[in-house]
């Protein structure tokens, strides 16, 4: 898998940690092997599955940093010998810097998620009781816009909330290394498609992202998993693999993490 495909979602995973109760422990010894009983316990425990997903994602990006470090060291020698251009060397350095920035970002997002544990506990309790989950971004205007555009475009506001949490951790000024912008991380082409002239305007961004999600749900016959995969990897990638979640580690973790929070609810 190309590094450009891998780097995009590191910033997205951490806020879902609030879905897990405060005592959830993330560190798992790399050498430890699970017994069959432990494997069954993880499979039957949503919190354990979420922890496993996050650990997999963390390991994926740590490995990517190590790979880029080795490649950059080799590139430096090749550049010194006149075998590659300065542009190639600088591109490698940029990719490495972005990967390291993602590692630092996830640590900050984990800390932020832990601060939201009280809200997350209410969400978990509501989901377990079968009651419509209570949710808030921490900003009343953003909450109201999610509800407004969700109703206007017939998309479950809670699904919009879960996607936004994963995409930007509710940071209106968020910009990804690939150029995705705002609360719902709209790429420039997607923003233009839905008439978003300022992706950092929260109303425009939520409108554009919700409309895009609506179109994806319609395209994939209400399949939330495929709509999420299309949002992350593009609808073309979903269709390329026979209307299934593409075999990209980034996309599969993205879909799995959001669905863990969203549960079995379907867009209305």
Structure described in brief:
The chain is mostly helical and 268 residues long.
| Estimated share of beta-strand residues | under 5%
What would the CATH topology of the largest domain be?
A: Lysozyme
Radius of gyration: 19 Å
- By CATH reckoning, the class of the largest domain would read Mainly Alpha
Shape: elongated
Class inferred from helices and paired strands: mainly alpha
Largest sheet: none
Structure write-up:
- By secondary structure, the protein is mainly alpha-helical.
- It folds into 2 domains: 3-115, no CATH class; 131-262, Orthogonal Bundle (Lysozyme), CATH 1.10.530.10.
- It is 63% helix and 0% strand.
- The chain contains 12 helices and no strands.
- The chain has helices at residues 3-6, 36-44, 46-80, 86-115, 117-129, 140-152, 157-168, 188-193, 202-219, 224-233, 235-240, 249-262.
- α3 (46-80) packs antiparallel against α4.
- It starts with a helix and ends in a 6-residue tail after the last helix.
Blueprint (SSEs and pairs):
Layout: H1 3-6, H2 36-44, H3 46-80, H4 86-115, H5 117-129, H6 140-152, H7 157-168, H8 188-193, H9 202-219, H10 224-233, H11 235-240, H12 249-262
Helix pairs in contact: 2-3, 3-4, 3-12, 6-7, 6-9, 7-12, 9-10, 10-12
